[in-house]
Amino acid sequence: MPYEPLLPVEKRLIAWSLGLGIVLLGLLLWLSAAFFPG
Amino acid sequence: MAAPRHAPSGTDSALPRSLPVSSFALNEDWLALLIGLLIFAVGALALTGTEVFGWGIKTNVWLDVGKAMTPLSAKFGHLPGWAALGLTYLVLTTVLSAAAGFIGVSRTRFAAAFTAVFFLSYFCYALGSFAHIAATPDQLKKFGITWSLNLTGEAGFIIALVAGLIVGNFFPGVAALLREAIRPEWYIKIAIVLLGAGLGVKSAEALGLASAVMFRGLCAIVEAYLIYWALVYFVARKYFGFSREWAAPLASGISICGVSAAIATGAAIRARPVIPIMVSSLVVIFAVFELLLLPFAAKHFLSHEPMVAGAWMGLAVKTDGAAVASGAITDGLIRAQALAQDGVAYKEGWITMAATTVKVFIDVFIGIWSFVLAVIWCTKIEPEAGHRVRVVEIWERFPKFILGYMLTFGLLLTYCLADKAHLPAAKTMTAGTDLFRVLFFVLTFFTIGVTSNFRKLWAEGIGRLAAVYVVCLFGFIIWIGLAISWLFFHGVKPPLATP
């Protein structure tokens, strides 16, 4: 398998995915607690 | 930028492709969309009360071979299993042979080759449903057996792949005879169009569940999706040196929903079909270990947080069958534990529901994520070299079957949400379309095996694939899944059983 360096667009995809995940974590936890208490 | 691929490696290029990949794929893509929509449209007659595919073949987990095959609908109970199989074969052969003519293939030769491919593939699939291979622990009692490999009916996919590899690598003369029907990409794409219908109904059903479980399940999978995928992709690319073509289906297969996600992602980024198939095989095998280990871990550590345990099964166990079976086992184990330890009798089914809800939402996101990846790959990662990408080019390169998936998913979801009373008819409909979807999946596994040169695949890194799977699954997927399940479900308790 030939080596393929990580392209900037791949790095952005990874960073955006993780960043969005972390930001949404706070938002979704708040929404769950506020509107859908268990 | 990486150059676009035209010639597959690791597959036997002499076998399946009579036209260059670029032009062939476009026609094949449209035909897959049209055939998928045709089956969907005919299946939709079930919404009027006609079980239009009731005569189709249904494969059961079996101990007595005479019970392995039955017609899909009880209304056709008088029909022997072999007749249902024969009818299913006739319909598929007719439709596919007619379509094959449009991609420059002799219809007669396709039909002859497809006959052998169909029956060989189906034999493998039925063999995989043997109870000692497929039965999950919650089914052992029903069959009166004490052990099983726990592989679920999806074991048939692996058997089909192995059989295909044997034919392709050791019987090249037979493989050459079958060449007209060795079209894994075509079968995969039709299957994915049909997959959307089944998931649309499942989603509508889940929306009728308790709103808190549903919303928290949705939150959990959004989180898991975004975090899992990115981490697995990064680890596979950075530390294991996988190419993009391998890393994306691997990330989807490990992090999302196994077989379907790996296949949809592979097709969306135009990876060679052998890649998602190899990933899928690993997913099915590792799901067995998860199924055997995680419910007991949940019983031991999470008996006071039953809904966390259920959601964890849905997030961590990577095939539909194994995830739901894990949820059911966990349901039984934790309820028994809670009753014995604390005298608390939880209502049956809620832990399973948490697992199922999470799993369904994961499935739903396959289409969305495939769409996102297809756009990124078309526009940024593998655009045609040397010029700026125009919108029309994105459209030309965009895998059309994904639109079919989204259409069938959207139509069924809307129909079911419009009125809950529509659900039973929609389920009857998708039982019929799923019959074909599973057959197309198994055809894909068998034919990909035939086209694969095992030595080349090994050289390409199947061993490394298993290594990255183990590292990611046991290194962080299971534990992040547990953390996310805890965050969204701790403190949520199932209702108590009424005496």
Structure description:
The complex is a heterodimer of chains A (38) and B (499). Helix content of chain A is 74%, strand content 0%. Chain A has 38 residues and is mainly α. The mean pLDDT of chain A is 85. Chain B has one domain (21-489). Chain B is globular and about 70 Å long. Chains A and B meet through helix 1 of A and helix 9, helix 14 and helix 19 of B.
Provide a quick synopsis of the model.
The complex is a heterodimer of chains A (38) and B (499). Chain A has 38 residues and is mainly α.
Binned strand content of chain A: under 5%
Q: Which radius of gyration of chain B do the C-alpha atoms yield?
A: 22 Å
Radius of gyration of chain A: 16 Å
The gross shape of chain A turns out to be rod-shaped
The total beta strand count of chain B reads 2
Largest sheet of chain A, in brief, is: none
Oligomer: heterodimer
The global form of chain B is: globular
Strand order of the largest sheet of chain B: 1-2
The main pleated sheet of chain B reads as: 2 strands, antiparallel
Head-to-tail CA distance between termini of chain A: 49 Å
Along the chain, the helix and strand elements of chain B come as HEEHHHHHHHHHHHHHHHHHH
Poorly predicted spans of chain A: none
What structural class results from the helix and strand content of chain A?
mainly alpha
* Total beta strands of chain A: 0
**Count of DSSP H/I helices of chain A:** 1
Any low-confidence stretches of chain B, pLDDT <50, length ≥5?
Answer: 1-25
Percent helix of chain A, as a range, is over 70%
The share of residues in extended strands of chain B comes to under 5%
What is the count of DSSP helices of chain B, taking H or I runs of 4+ residues? Answer: 19
* Class based on secondary structure composition and strand pairing of chain B: mainly alpha
